[in-house]
Amino acid sequence: MLSRLLCVSAQNFSYPALFAANALKGSGHLGAGLIQASRCLHTSSQTLAPVPPLPETGGKVRLGFVPEELFQFLYPKTGVTGPYMLGTGLLIYLLSKEIYIINHETIAGLSLLSVIVYGVKKYGKDVAAFADRLNEEKLAAAHLAKDTAITDVTEAIEEEKLEQWRTEGNSVQFDAKRNNVIMLLETNYRERLHMVTNEVKRRLDYQIALQALHSRLEKEHMVNWVEKSVVSSISPQQSLP
Known about the structure:
Helix content is 78%, strand content 2%. It is an all-alpha fold. It has a two-stranded antiparallel sheet. Helix 2 (15-25) runs antiparallel to helix 3.
């Protein structure tokens, strides 16, 4: 809790706060909260370094609002009663020098503080449980959204891998189609070649048949001419016995 308050309040300070935080960081008696706060104030390249995560619950406090780290920080220098004497002396100094004057606003502030303390003691656990439930619901919704996004991305990756596999198979498909086209061209070529062969054979057969017909007609004509010539050369006297 102290680290969060210091991180928020650090945004309203300038370089003196930065120097103070660096000085506190060098002390070996500080807790994790002050170190975290000093890292929030640090502006060098170390801000990119990993920092310890913030605690889920607040740290130990005394008197309801004084952090335990302050007591641990003052113990080696002032002893056990040092922090209490420091607070008491500071309060007496403020009152004796009239830096802080007790008036009706002080009474109103103490009354308001009492109401706040009573509300925290009585309803703090219920409010904390309600806040934790809301936080858990938000975390559950965030995890659900994350899981849904991861599932969608995983499915998209699987679909992309499937499409890549199909794309790799296109080369085999293209080779098969190319071979089919080559076979179709070869079939058409052989069909046309067979058609040309048949046409040439048919024409050659026609020429052979035509020549045979001419030869037969010539022979028949020659036979008829010889018979006619022989018949015409025989006189009627030679034909009688």
